[in-house]
Amino acid sequence: MASSSSPSTAPGPEASESVVLHAPLPGWVSALGEVPDEVFAQGMMGEGLAIDPLAGELRAPCDGRVVLVAPTSHAVTLKSRNGAEILLHIGLDTVGLGGRGFDARVAAGDEVRRGDLLIAFDLDAVALEARSLITPIIVTNGERFLFSASGTGAVDADAPIGIVRLRSEIEATAVPGPSSRFAVREVRIALPNGLHARPAARVAATAKQFRSEIRMRVGDREAGARSPVSMMALDVRDGQTIELSAEGGDADEALAALARLIEVDLPAVEVHAAAAPKTVAPAAAAPAGVIAGVCAVAGMAVGPVVRLDGRIEEVAREGRGPAIEAQALDDALAAVCSALAGAAADRDATVAGIATAHLELVGDEDLRAAALKRIDEGESAGFAWRAASREMGDALKATGNRLLAERIDDLRDIEQQVLARIAGRERDAPLSLPENAIVLADEILPSQVVALAGRAAGLCTAGGGPTSHVAVLAAAAGLPTMVAAGRGLAVVAEGTIVLLDATSGRLHVDPAAEMLDIARAGIAASHAQRRSERDDALAECRTADGTRIEIFANLGAVTDAAAAVAAGAEGCGLLRSEFLFLDRDSAPDEDEQHAAYQAIADGLDGRPLIVRTLDVGGDKALAYLPIPREDNPALGLRGVRVSLWRPELLDEQLRAILRVTPAGRCRIMVPMVSGLDELRAVRARLEALAGENGGAAAELGVMVETPAAAILADQIATEADFLSIGTNDLTQYALAMDRTNPAVAAQVDAFHPAVLRLIAAAAEGGRRRGKPVGACGGLASDPLGAVLLVGLGLSELSAAPAAIPAVKARLRSVRIDECRAIAQWALDQDSAASVRRSVEDALAPSEAGMKA
Fold it and tell me: Where is the PTS EIIA type-1 domain (predicted)?
């Protein structure tokens, strides 16, 4: 029988002996991660396990005192003699039963012995009404206690199921000293994809700069702010308010820095959202010999199958001793960190960004602590690391968030890289691949894609998703890739000739010779066309009837200039100067800016250079420029508004541009202008600064990105030296759709007739004032879009360097009167889709001519 006693006789928190937990009821033990409820599965309440019960009596798993009995009698919390608090929760969503079927036999304050009856319940009645009978058993004060389960499977009542021990001094949170502070602050998440991998990694990196213990809380879920994986497992969504708490001597400074990071500096964009390809959903059924999947990177390839499975699965469980295994783990982590740091510094931007995110995962404190805990219990470094990684992966999967679930690829990659180092080898793609190899695998990890780039002709995986880092890397490498092909992929033998049509989401296994001939001819024609376009890219661009169209490049770094010139750029129509300002702790000074602008001007070898003044705010924030929180950042302090708000930044940038030699090499373009007053303010500063050194002011133009600027283009052109239409932002503002929001991003299409009419108005306004009008948005990088822009009256286009050969080739195939007729027809269409169809249909004859 349970007996009542005063709280003063309860076991104190100073007790330190271990406590063995015994099964409170008979049934089937499973890992907590298998509980179909994210609060329990993700460990948000704490560590533990679950039992699917076979009897209707819940008994005490150990000696202790009853701390709490739920008013509906479906749950009870005990405090064991060593101070561990143990929650026993019968079933899922059983609070909704209002107590029906439950009979509590104890009350708060009662002392109980192991095996005492806590709650009797009607097993059948509760099973009929509850979502599940599975009963979580959780240690809720896990910051002080470690729980180790004995295993899973069938268990009898009162059988040992685990042990609860006080954490070591190293693992325990230090007791705050006299100078410590405890601070709490609420911040709002304004990220379309929530707190996913990259922003979580940046939060963790910032938290690690402070000594204080920092926690993040959402509702009743909590995570350490130094662990990006734990934060991702909270599944924090866009618009949610989170609570940050810090305890330590620098608590106030830590929370101020994190609040500024989260509310100001975290970019509200999907990982490489702009580069994410449109996907083609697999058909419900595919004909014999065809495997259906999802397009991750469009394209087609024919070649022999190479199966890739370099995973390390067999790992010895028993260790050689905690000290030896802990050192082995730390050595492996250090080696992987070194390799990733090299990739982050030396590779292209796509690879570097993903390597940086992986670097944070390798340095995740919670992940390492979970592995070390297992090592202390006798497991080997490899076994402990793999188990800890997969527990984290299970937590991400349990969120139900597709984007976070796809980040499991990154955890698996890091898991395998560390396992390989522990085993004394480096993971790599196959040393040799046959020509045109099509690589098939259950999964391909990001690091393997980097190794396969330029060596394989195509990739196809049984699992994965189209927005994973694998897809991003494959797109950067131009590698046709299909994902989510399913189990049928396993039966395709090594060496089989396949046709991978990633664009339509089909893998044709051992296709007929006629199909292969047609596919190879199409691939060869596509390659030949691209080669021809590259060969002709250096020549100036004229339409078929001789109209001159200047094709510039959009640049975002010093190293882009040479590549742009090699691709056929006739200058830079848009230098995104914010590349100098992002991802750093302070603004670049005048000398640093001047050196960068001068290097780009030199790289262009005398060609024109248009520098856009700092364009931040909205989805591009600076940690050192704390813009006040805005409910609608895209409609607040952005572009020129930030420059006029912080004129010292504008002055320093203008001085740096004016110093570029020879004088007059650079032109300056102001972003996000909505009226003449903003242009006049910038011109006043430009002329004043030029006058200080006795020089002439550079040409000053306006970027037409707001509907207001497009409508007032004739007025703005009276004082602007040139206009350049930024079709990306103009589209989102015209359609009132955020292009960084995945829910509507596919509809933010610059081919929309409303956008085209605004472009036409801007072009006409500039023409009437005799000012040149160009375009530097994504529409200018699309060959079909280029035809429309020229037809609407533009004579200067600035495109992504890689798109320049194709844009020039397309414009050379049409006459100026054809462009104008196509554009006029497009203005009368009723949707972006109909505009695309009309342009494609009109250009079909010239398309045939280009391929001939």
Answer: 37-141
